[in-house]
Amino acid sequence: MQSGYDSNGSVEYVKKQPVWAFCLLSFLSFGLYTVYWFYKNWYFFRDLYEWDIYPIWRAIFDIFFVHTLLEQINDRAIEKGHPGISSNLWATGYVVVSLLARILDRTLPPSLAVLTVFLPPFLFLIPSVMQVNYLYEKARPNEYQPTFSSGEYIVLALGGTLMGFVLISALTAA
Questions:
Q1: C-beta atoms surrounding 62 within 10 Å
Q2: Which residues cross the membrane (predicted)?
């Protein structure tokens, strides 16, 4: 497969991110940050292999494409010397927990539905986040990468406020 990847070039749409930062952003955005993460990684692979795909649709319909993305990340990481992960197992966990959370959210009474916030499918993406970090480190060793961008600080502020309201609402409804 022909690769458009240049290890000396700039890959602006993939960044090294601490796992805790990914989890915090995903949790406080109620999972919307994972859609952004999927989008950025699909965008990377689209350009890398010159695929004719639409990353936004693959990100929005992530449960249908998560297996392929995690497999691509895993294959690329193995190419660069990473020991690899069971990407299909992690992707299946992501799909199952995503569907379970959506089903429970719609079937539980409103006072209990808020508990689905604590059933986070993004935890199944952590090994792949670590692999993306590995790839970034291989392409740009020792480069400083701030933990959060300005947009991510906005997500933290808004998401933290909204999460606070949700928790207060859940506690007062009981």
A1: 23
A2: 19-39, 51-70, 85-104, 111-133, 153-173
CA–CA dist 86, 74 (Å, integer): 8
Q: Which two tokens stand for residue 174?
A: 């009981």
The torsion of the CA quartet 123, 128, 130, 132, rounded to 10 degrees, works out to -140
What is the pTM (predicted TM-score) of this model? 0.85
pLDDT tens track for 4-33: 445 544 445 577 899 999 999 999 998 899
CB 49 within 8 A of CB 2: yes
- Tens of pLDDT, residue by residue over 66-114, are 999 999 999 999 999 999 999 999 999 999 999 998 898 888 887 777 7
> Degrees (nearest 5) of the Cα angle 125, 87, 130?
45
Angstrom distance (rounded) from CA 92 to CA 71: 12
| Under 8 Å between Cβ of 121 and 34 | yes
**Type of residue found at 145:** Q
Distance CA 141, CA 159 (A): 32
